[in-house]
Amino acid sequence: MSARLVIMGPQGSGKGTQALRLAERFGVPTISTGDIFRANIKGSTALGLLAQSYTAKGDLVPDSVTNDMVKDRLAQPDAAGGFILDGYPRNAAQVTALDAILADLDTRLDAVAELVADRDELLARLARRAEIEGREDDTELAIARRLDIYDEQTAPLTSAYDARGLLVRVDGTGDIDEVTARLVAALDPVVR
Ligand code: AMP
Fold first, then answer.
1. What are the domain boundaries of the chain?
2. Which residue has its alpha carbon closest to ligand 1 atom 9?
3. Ligand 1: centre distance to CA 54 (Å)
4. CATH class in words for 3-185
């Protein structure tokens, strides 16, 4: 089985957790741009130093940097049989870049899954995560900034994918296992 998927959803929607579960289910790697940035920040690489000034505030890292990073990652052999993109694309320019990257690799997306949850639930989950994980960018200001960017720049992308017949919308509220079951039920029929 191969699955070429994007998982979208605001901060706190459980997207990272669900991406890992889907990756296991479909036997493909997750590609999380946030995780790649965090690993680079931790390792103090040039990319990490550049990214940190943006991630700390909840701002997007510039598209040129992010797109090149994803292009390199998708060209790795383990992504040849499929992948779950988590946290990318996040704006219209990244959608266009992803189209070009996949066309170069002679492949295309099978589906884009969107996890939907209301803002109050997201804020409550993020406050809990901040306590548990202590992520540098889980400050109140950075969280609010990321949710605003999601509403303004990322959520509108779902209509573009919907118009292509790729969008699957899933209720992200409730138990983690229930959300996974909903995602799998929605995605099983569309992966090749
Ligand atoms: P995440 O782990 O997905 O919440 O991402 C953490 C941070 O990494 C974001 O707030 C951005 O600063 C940066 N980031 C992750 N993915 C992207 C992306 N696709 N484009 C630009 N910046 C990103």
1. 3-185
2. 55
3. 9
4. alpha beta
Q: Digits of tens for pLDDT over the chain (192 positions)?
A: 679 999 999 988 999 999 999 999 999 999 999 999 999 999 999 999 999 999 999 999 999 999 999 999 999 999 999 999 999 999 999 999 999 999 999 999 999 999 999 888 888 888 888 889 888 888 888 888 999 999 999 999 999 999 999 999 999 998 999 999 999 999 999 986
DSSP states along 35-96: HHHHHHHHTT-HHHHHHHHHHTTTPPPPHHHHHHHHHHHHTSGGGTTEEEEES---SHHHHH
Residue 112 identity (one-letter amino acid): V
Q: List residues near ligand 1 (CB under 6 A).
A: 11, 33-34, 37, 54-55, 58-61, 66, 87-88, 90, 94, 137, 146
21 catalytic? Reply is: no
Ligand 1 atom closest to 70 (CA): 19
